[in-house]
Records
---
Amino acid sequence: MSIDTSKVATSNSSAAIADKPNPVGAVANWADERLGLASLAKKNLRKVFPDHWSFMLGEIALWSFVVLLLSGVFLTLWYDPTMAEVHYEGSYAQLRGIEMSGAYASALHLSFDVRGGLLMRQMHHWAAMLFIASMMIHLLRVFFTGAHRKPREMNWVIGCLLLILGTLEGFTGYSLPDDLLSGTGIRAADGFMKASPVIGSYMSFFLFGGEFPGTHIIPRLYVVHILLIPGLLLALITAHMLLLVYHKHTQWAGPGRTEQNVVGFPMLPVYAAKAGGFFFIVFGVCALMGGLFTINGVWLYGPYDPSKVTAGSQPDWYMGWPDGALRIMPGLETHIFGHTISWNVMLPILVLPIVMFLVLMVLPFVEAWITGDKRDHHLLQRPRNAPTRTAFMVALMTMYGLFWAAGGNDIIAIKLHLSINQITYFMRVAVFVGPVIAFIITKRWCISLQRKDQEDLLHGYETGIIMRSPEGGYSERHLPLSPDRAYVLAAHDRDPDVIAELEAGPSGPDGNGVEPKKGIAGALEGARQRLRTAMYADNVQKPTREELEAAHHHAEHEHELQAGVEGEAADGHQFDGHHAVEDDRLRADD
Amino acid sequence: MSDQHGPDELGPGEHGSSDLPDKYAGHEGEIQSADEPIRNPGLPQHTWRPTDVDPKAERRAERQVAGIFGLAALCAVLFVVSYFVFDIGGSPEDDVPTIFGLGASNVALGGTLGLALLLIGIGLIQWARKLMSDHEMVEMRHPARSSDEDREATIKALNDGLEESGIARRPLVRNSLLGAVTVLLAPAVVLLRDLGPTPNQVAEEADYPGAGLEKTVWEKGMRVVRDVVGTPIRPGDMEIGDLFNAEPEIIFAVDEEGEPILEGEPLLIAKSKAAVVLIRMDPDENKPAPGRENWAIDGILCYSKICTHVGCPISLNERKTHHLLCPCHQSTFDLADAAKVVFGPAARPLPQLPLAVDSEGYLVAQSDFREPVGPSFWERDSQASTTE
């Protein structure tokens, strides 16, 4: 396709440069003489970011955090973190005259007597859900594509910390209205604390300022919710972003995209507009949800009363998985020397989440230790090309999902008319067996996809066109992939052992004469080697150039026997001669 | 940041030219070598958009974007209008206007604000997609590590600084500083001491009834009264199978001047520990634990309502089986069998309150609970209750 570039519109021409001093220039000069912004801006204004839909997930988290800050500030103007008792006399008739804490009364006031107050409350809650959900999905994207590898391990750790803090922030936040549901949550949290060995009851008495419930917990949670955790979140998000800019964003392998460069659009103007626009979209979605979908209608629950509870009490969804673990844990306690150790609470709610987050945080380091890979990685991996890693995360997801489902065992029992006992017994086994099954299936699935890629590379893609030979036999026509597509499929690294073999030549690796280590170091090294072997087992290695040429040569020969149709549309008509197809493009070229 | 090089932009003419693969695919020290099966084909040719080559399309896109921004402004104005037009409030008698069964004010404010924001976002992105340059640019990466020169210079500067400080040569100064800073942790920790009293202090010194983890407000002769209304209960008020939520009388009691005896914090604490359930069953069905044979009155049993798991109040009763289910984590207790755990994560039975009848025929407690109620804690001596 030829283009008369003389007609090219202004959008792609270089901008005019102002050569006269103007007011903007004067301001810029004033600022630069004092702040030296130009040398910083020079490097970053036109910084290149690659484009892919999945890079937007982290952005959702970032912008929903901004929405949280904005709507949260609004809420603080009316919310009153006090547990002093008041008689409610506001607009909500059903609760008028009832005694409640000042905190609950102010939450009702915000909902019924401040115009836009309910909107802001609901936007705040929806944005919090979006914040945590998008962080989780962003984490999965990063891990499945290998973006956590060197040099980005620290940013992975920061991301995990953000997820933990976000979860705690959510819990402290939904506890503040001091309604019956959130009070029940705080009471359970008190039970969790008391289950800690040795210091449990002290922790509880210090946090609550005496016996549960006391009158201190709401103001204390408030300070944690609006000062302590947001401050940490803000600092960590800043570090997360600075590291992102410093490392430059990862990109997908593709024509012209390598480990050494980053290809994409500049910050100014394209990403300033796209990311800035996306902020408004996230903000807008939160506003629409806050306007149209009721969330946490605290007026329905009533004020907190320590002797009452509602049926089907459940925490917000992101707290659901430890709650599920708590539900399916058998009731084990140890009584020893006049003391009680509550395994039934401690293991699922104190130990399990900490272990889960630690596992998450050390993943990049464990992976690097097993692979021994010390290289920088800026090209993303397709999940199928790291089957063991992909399968491991799917196993973790499965475990998370099963725990989460166990957190709703009462709801499952009611909706599906099942016995809650049977669901619980099933879950006790499933949380261990399910991840193993998920691991095996995912790993085999990935390897099958690798084989499919290999097939496409060597023999071309399936056109769906069935040919009949003069002898009467049928066969499907395969056509070669476009060069760009083929490059993408073959852009990933071979496994290190295969590389070593290729580099060592036909004589094979000589072991470099390194003496085997002894003792613990030797055992560790042995474990590492076994893990490494298991990690790469059954991977399909992309073809060498010779293999590819041989396969293509073979294919060409086949094609000559059938028909010469290279470079033509694969819609079937090139084989039947019904119309000319010279200008059609091959499907694989797109 | 150490990104010293400006982005080296490629003009349109360079895209897809034959020198690109060599220029950008040649990796130093990279394993990608002669055995790579497929050469990097280089960046694809830039394709012009209709808005790049057709002034009409360009102007159309311009009008489109401006139109979207205009609509956003309109929505913002409508937001302000809705703010003043729609009443809010939660009472049916106030006749608050509704949309889709929801408060009209909230729906209108959320809808207009959401649309205004969405339209601004959509307009900006449309602007970027249709009218801003869409030439891909290439920027070279640089290793995250500093250059060797920088490292050497840093180490030298650090060493010089440390040397001049004398921190290595003067261990006395260094160690005394470390010691002083370590001791400084003590004030930081001690300062938090007054966050709350210790469990023992509460049990021994607190001036409200039933203070401490081991006690509740129940005492000998205290009436068991109905939850919410506070009226006392005669055994005859309950039929077999009934389950009452009940409280100790002191929760509702007033002194001579009509002031409640328990108020505020002590009231909340009392409620959080002393809530009970009463159940009446056929005395033949009940299997009392040893030593508890005289704790029931005419088949009426009284158990703590606070779950021994993490402390939720329990109230879901299965009438036929005498099972009581906790709505939080589904621990199930058999009230006919000393409230032992029959299912779920709780480890201990619900504590039982020994009942008696006072001179007026109302249900009263024989004493406080004989063991702590609620969730387990480290100092709890549970041996006694479990061996029963």
---
Amino acid sequence: MNRTATQPFTGAWRLVRLALRRDRIILPVWIVAISGLAGAVLASYSGTYTNEAERADAAAFGASNPLTRVFDGPASGTSLGAMALVEAFKVLAILTALMSAQAVIRHTRADEETGRAELLGSAVVGRHARLTAALVVTLGANLVLGVAVAGLLVANDLPVAGSFAAGMAAAGMGWVFAGIAAIGAQVLSTTRGANAAAAAALAIAFVIRAVGDLLGHVGDSGVVLISAWPSWVSPLGWGQQVRPYYQDNWWIAGLFAGLTALLVVGAFRLTSLRDVGSGMVPPRPGPAHAGRGLRSTLGLAWRLQRGVLLVWAIGLVGLGAAFGAVGKSAEDLLTDNAQVAQMFARLSPGADVIDVYFTVLMAIVGTAAAGYTVQALLRMRAEEDTGRLEPVLATPVGRHQWLASHAIIAAGGTTAILALAGLAGGLVYGGMTGEWAASTRDVLAAALVQAPAALALGALVLALFGLLPRESGPLAWAALAAALVMGQLGAMLDLPQWLLDVSPFTHVPRVPAEAFSVTPVIWLLLAAVALGAVGFAAFRRRDLAIGA
Amino acid sequence: MEHVIETRGLTKSFGRTRALEGLDLTVGRGEVHGFLGPNGSGKSTTIRVLLGLLRKDGGETTLLGGDPWRDAVALHRRLAYVPGDVQLWPNLSGGEAIDLLGELRGSLRRSRRDELVERFQLDPTKKCSAYSKGNRQKVAIVAGLASDVELFLLDEPTSGLDPLMETVFQDVVHEITAGGGTVLLSSHILAEAEALCDTVSIIRDGRIVESGSLAALRHLTRTTLHVTTREPLDGLETTPGVYDIVKSDGGYTARFEVAADQLGAVVEHIGQHGVVALTSAPPTLEELFLRHYGDELATLAGNGNGNAKPDGAARRRRGGAEASR
């Protein structure tokens, strides 16, 4: 009698076709971009290292250098493919995980939030059909991505087996994060919450394996890093342990598939336990009257923004503290190895290795903090798009006043996050070395000096919001992704200097490795003010862009 | 009479769709003005232009003596707005949302606010994410109507309200006008407009096609008479101004419509036959409305299978509907 109870997957195939229709542009763009990036890194790598001796030097450096251990993962020998993949895998894996998590959430939680799921649920559609369709499409997209990556690597004259192992590592990462997102979409009642949970899981996976690789030891050959156990606890670590073109550990595909299956089964269990539309955490009643703090535009903006700020602050303080905690072992590794020390000296002549270490790491924290800036500012677009801004602007609240209240919180929040992350890194490192004052001051400075660059990127988001409201979301994230790629892979990809100069993070003074220089900071702040002014002026002059 | 709202030849396009094509709307002080039209005819677009949320392409607009775009902030101190499809912040309680919107406007009367929460039977401690559409609508209504302002712009305010709450809403609007407030009420519920409005404007395809007091508009259409006489009613068919005659009871009883300007002559004519019973029904707003939309209704009825191509006008309207959402 009750078809949906006995046939929980009824209608899934139709929903798969619906999802493919909705994603016909976004998924192919992701796949082309990710696999294209893999091809580009490889092409530039083969240009940089032309002979075996050069590669051996670089691999030995990568195996012993704590920075490359933290960011690139375990060195895996001197073959061209293996070295290029070590360099590129982190970006491939992060992008693949984001693609997968967003796709699953787009077809599950986002549908429930907008009420589309209710409409679908009233049709002849089984309880598990929507999640099934989301997973089929996402897992399938990852298979296509894996084959595309492998194809591009084979086209670059690399061995076929290793190329497919590399594709498998990327796709496996995507599978696991599709599973994580499926769980998040059941537990959390908002799209933003589910996306944030997936991003947090990604950050944790990165930090765990970074610790594992940092604590590992160099193999007898001198060009291979044997990772410590934490690397095997993280799905990102598994992807790196596939070690394409070196070991081609195909059996790790089993780890990926097994964890994905566990996560998916868990998500289906959760679907059976809850109602359509709700999360696992029921909403609590709130106050009958608004408190003092909520009775202004700034108060409203703070209320809307504080959750996001808190999550990012916790995440980046954790990251800063982790960098501080491994600072001491990084320093020991660096001073023990003459070759690496030499390399560092070339990077910033005359600087202490630990100063260079914090300079480089806080640049990462700076780019991550810009992620907060972008997300906080795009909240304005969400307010406008859903129609929640309309009744606010129908009161005597000026558009500039409303825009300013969000901009103030985003700017203040960015600065606060950087200060806290720098403070955490400095205090933890200080605690391990006993040099409290000096290290806290240096690391805090290294973090805070990132703020003008993050604010300049934020001001670009303001300008986009004013000029191109409907496109501002994708464009803002694309700008951040471009800054990330330029900062992390810019040198490797041999990008021309003028292009690197477009990224605000290129201009950040290299504190504490080098002396602070005020000129670039002033230029960054001027750019921020100019772009921000464009945003304010354009928003005052345009129609509200409500709904799609 | 002073005009609270006045637009002359107002135009607004969204890309290639023209939402307003020369709209002339006048609302006098103290009126409850019904702004009537089906979905997508341009009602919400007009109100958003009046609020300075959209920028007009052409024409003149005056709101409370100011320019809605340039003087938006100053004008908004003197008006309250209730949107028809209210979206609220999911993590705020209903009470918080009411206070927030009221405090931003700066003229929330707290006693009135608590009274309206009570009368609309709203639970202000629930989170906005847990409200049904009707309850979200109540939040916007309370936040708007508890304000001490001159002008109320209500854009299909009762969509989603149950009939009991609709009665409460009508009482509250009567209280507002008794206090001298002006109301622009956009609606497609004609019974509601009939119960509340002194004057109405009917909009079609971004233009006002009929405007005036309800009494004057009634004059433009026909009254229905239901008559029983002692002698058979003859000569009705040839009397000018009589339409749609339905006779029964062997010709002693008849129901027919009479043009307003011929009513006197017709009553005189039936008087000669010895009237036993007579009821007269004034024209309803629905009949007024159908004068302007009757052709469309006929088209829809004629193509009842739903597969027929819409005519050009209907297609234009559909485009307008998408743009105004």
